[in-house]
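Lecture notes, part 5. Sequence design as translation. It can be helpful to think of inverse folding as translation between two languages: the language of shapes and the language of residues. The source text, in structure tokens, appears below.
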């Protein structure tokens, strides 16, 4: 519950979204304010009175903007808009701006002018995207088309597929929130504001580090995810009632247990080997036939309580009915003036005070998180992302892993995505002397973070009570799978199961089609960004008023955030635009089309003016004077092609795709060629882009047997001073054990070093070196 002890209580945030489409970039313009609101800030949202016609019938804002004070301005009256916004920013702590440069300038949103009148103001700008090919309209579809992301979807037909999951907007929104929070932490020391900026193009790099990477020498796992498009078998199956379920075998022995339960021949090579090699595809055909014999509820009951995991594949919004989601506080009731009682997504980041203390403003000459110590006890992909975000803000991060290594060291793209910039310590937490080393690490830490299953931290000695007994003022962050309480709290979770529960797989499938699994790691990484937001809010609260802070996030909350525009009215789901069965888009005005040459291009018609210009370009009979609304779940009848789509499909087959893009752009109609690239080409589009290099959005280093590695850096960018640089490269197993033990006043050879941890750096590869 938001109250006086929430971390951002008393802060004033102004969120400005000028001409921003909810469909095209809504999460970018609404998510930062939503997160800061749930952390206790008072948020005023300033938005254009005139809505883009693209958003007609789309009601995402009912969930996104709950609890914000809404102020509408007239884009046609720039002087009036500037007066309103300037008045609001005089007393604001944070200003978040999304929209075109032209509208921002006309509305008086000039960062330096605002900073002069309010030196403590923090300005976060979500700018239009650009790379070496130029500026990209702030529309998710066009950014995905330019980047090649539409060919990184294993769709139901050959060629690119429309991307339903708005990763660019989500990444921009999350990195904007991190920018605001990091500047707030710094302001407690300096007394001055600052600025941060990001974009939708940056947002893709923020959310997809698992698949944007390149190595000089491939291994089987880098081949699977950095050259190919991931496992061929998605492990989702249709049941007798037409509903789908999702399997996962991540726990030790889970695959073998499932094969025995189903009566399938045992595996000689094991789960990972069969998944990577494609041998599981043949098994999947047999399993599909079995699952088709019973309804989904029967299978869910039959497979419950096993070592392997099984969850239903739900559509967006359906999870809000689930008793566990309600108990976890992720499903909340609100009253809407027009809709009446509604059920929407509740807070996904919770930060609570853990006791009184003295404010700790921090050193005045420290930049962002310089001087902040972070203990990373997390694993897999979702857990380590938050400490990496903190490392890239200047924090000193020590990662602790067992002497055998993090379980993802063998899945190198997943490991690499979250492990840059840290010092690595190998430590057997079950060794007799481990508690003594942990105690010293707890004393050293400002932040302790983990994503263990509920109950594991208690058994291994790093639960909140044990940490706080040593260091009462620590920021303790627990990123759980399903939340720390409720019927599912003890269950294992992963990205794929959360895609099933949140509606991501079903929405990407297209109307009436089987689920489409996105092998991107997007939910895992989103969970990391949300945890980073919680930690930053906790650090701000500790500096501002003192005392320890408890941070709680979950993978389930992260997944639901990506579909947070969906809500319930009574028991009825309202989830927004519906993707067609061919996975081309939401309707005539927002989809991909194919030209005469077989190439594809993306078309996004945001308003009536652009629709009129489109009609002038194509010159065909039958197109109405007004743009047709998108297909939504509230529209009657089936979700087949709109008549306007059929007309435009026929018209666009008359010329090559590139010719249409050239003519449409010249007429002022947003369009973008769909870059068709394999996984390596997709990554190269980011990693070789000159603008990316100029802006410092790419990092390169040497990683042992893999040779040279290139990866994206996380947004946002900061000013007026540049942000600190994280340690280069990925640490080897135990590479910094001796160094850290010495830091903790544990001399090599002493009693605290007989822990099953190496006495000297024990890395399977040499230490990483920046190139």
């Amino acid at each position: 519950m938001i109250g006086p002890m929430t971390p951002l209580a008393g802060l004033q945030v102004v969120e400005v979204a000028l001409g921003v489409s909810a469909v095209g970039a809504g999460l970018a313009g609404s998510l930062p304010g939503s997160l800061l609101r749930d952390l206790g800030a008072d948020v005023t949202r300033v938005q254009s009175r005139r809505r883009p016609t693209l958003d007609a019938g789309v009601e995402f804002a009912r969930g996104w903007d709950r609890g914000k004070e809404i102020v509408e301005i007239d884009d046609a009256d720039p002087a009036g808009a500037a007066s309103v916004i300037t008045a609001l920013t005089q007393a604001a702590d944070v200003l978040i701006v999304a929209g075109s440069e032209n509208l921002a300038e006309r509305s008086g949103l000039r960062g330096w002018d605002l900073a002069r009148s309010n030196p403590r103001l923090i300005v976060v700008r979500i700018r239009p995207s650009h790379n070496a090919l130029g500026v990209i309209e702030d529309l998710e579809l066009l950014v995905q088309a330019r980047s090649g992301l539409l060919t990184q979807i294993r769709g139901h037909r050959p060629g690119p597929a429309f991307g339903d999951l708005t990763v660019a907007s989500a990444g921009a929104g999350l990195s904007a929130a991190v920018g605001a929070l990091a500047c707030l932490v710094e302001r407690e020391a300096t007394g001055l504001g600052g600025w941060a900026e990001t974009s939708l193009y940056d947002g893709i790099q923020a959310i997809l580090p698992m698949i944007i990477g390149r190595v000089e020498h491939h291994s089987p796992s880098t081949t699977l995810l950095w050259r190919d498009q991931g496992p061929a078998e998605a492990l989702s199956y249709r049941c007798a009632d037409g509903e789908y379920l999702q399997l996962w075998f991540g726990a030790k022995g889970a695959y073998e247990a499932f094969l025995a339960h189903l009566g399938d021949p045992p595996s000689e090579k094991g789960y990972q080997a069969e998944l990577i090699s494609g041998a599981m595809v043949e098994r999947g055909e047999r399993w599909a036939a079995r699952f088709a014999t019973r309804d989904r509820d029967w299978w869910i009951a039959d497979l419950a309580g096993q070592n392997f995991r099984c969850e239903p594949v739900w559509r967006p919004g359906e999870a809000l009915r689930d008793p566990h989601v309600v108990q976890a506080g992720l499903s909340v009731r609100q009253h809407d003036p027009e809709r009446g009682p509604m059920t929407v997504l509740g807070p996904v980041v919770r930060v609570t005070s853990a006791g009184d203390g003295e404010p700790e403003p921090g050193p005045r000459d420290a930049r962002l998180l310089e001087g902040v110590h972070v203990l990373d006890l997390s694993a897999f992909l979702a857990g380590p992302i938050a400490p990496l975000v903190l490392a890239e803000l200047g924090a000193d991060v020590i990662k602790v892993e067992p002497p055998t290594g993090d379980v993802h060291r063998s899945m190198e793209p997943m490991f690499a995505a979250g492990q840059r910039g840290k010092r690595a310590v190998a430590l057997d937490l079950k060794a007799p002397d481990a508690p003594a080393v942990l105690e010293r690490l707890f004393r050293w830490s400002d932040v302790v973070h983990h994503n263990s299953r509920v109950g594991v931290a208690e058994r291994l000695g790093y639960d909140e009570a044990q940490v706080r007994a040593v260091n009462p003022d620590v920021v303790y962050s627990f990123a759980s799978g399903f939340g720390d309480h409720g019927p599912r709290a003890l269950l294992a979770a992963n990205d794929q199961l959360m895609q099933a529960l949140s509606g991501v797989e079903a929405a990407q499938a297209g109307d009436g089609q089987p689920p489409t699994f996105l092998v991107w790691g997007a939910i895992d990484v989103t969970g990391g960004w949300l945890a980073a937001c919680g930690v930053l809010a906790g650090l701000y609260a500790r500096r501002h008023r003192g005392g320890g802070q408890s941070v709680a996030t979950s993978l389930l909350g992260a997944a639901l955030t990506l579909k947070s525009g969906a809500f319930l009215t009574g028991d009825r789901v309202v989830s927004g635009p519906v993707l067609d069965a061919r996975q081309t888009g939401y309707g005539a005005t927002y989809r991909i089309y194919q030209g005469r040459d077989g190439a594809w291009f993306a078309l996004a018609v945001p308003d009536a003016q652009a629709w009129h210009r489109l009609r002038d370009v194509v010159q065909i009979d039958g197109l109405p004077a007004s743009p047709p609304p998108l297909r939504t779940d509230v529209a009657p009848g089936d979700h087949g092609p709109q008549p306007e789509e059929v007309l435009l499909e026929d018209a666009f087959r008359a010329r090559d795709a590139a010719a249409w893009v050239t003519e449409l752009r010249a007429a002022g109609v947003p369009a973008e060629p769909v870059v068709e690239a394999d996984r390596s080409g997709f990554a190269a589009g980011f990693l070789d882009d000159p603008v990316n290099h100029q802006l410092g959005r790419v990092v390169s280093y040497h990683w042992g047997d893999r040779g040279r590695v290139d990866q994206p850096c996380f947004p946002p960018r900061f000013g007026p001073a540049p942000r600190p640089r994280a340690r280069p490269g990925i640490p080897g197993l135990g590479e910094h054990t001796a160094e850290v033990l010495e830091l903790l006043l544990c001399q090599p050879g002493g009693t605290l070093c007989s822990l099953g941890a190496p006495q000297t750096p024990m890395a399977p590869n040499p230490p990483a070196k920046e190139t």
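The translated text above is only one of many valid answers, since several sequences can fold into similar shapes. The longest strand covers residues 12-18.
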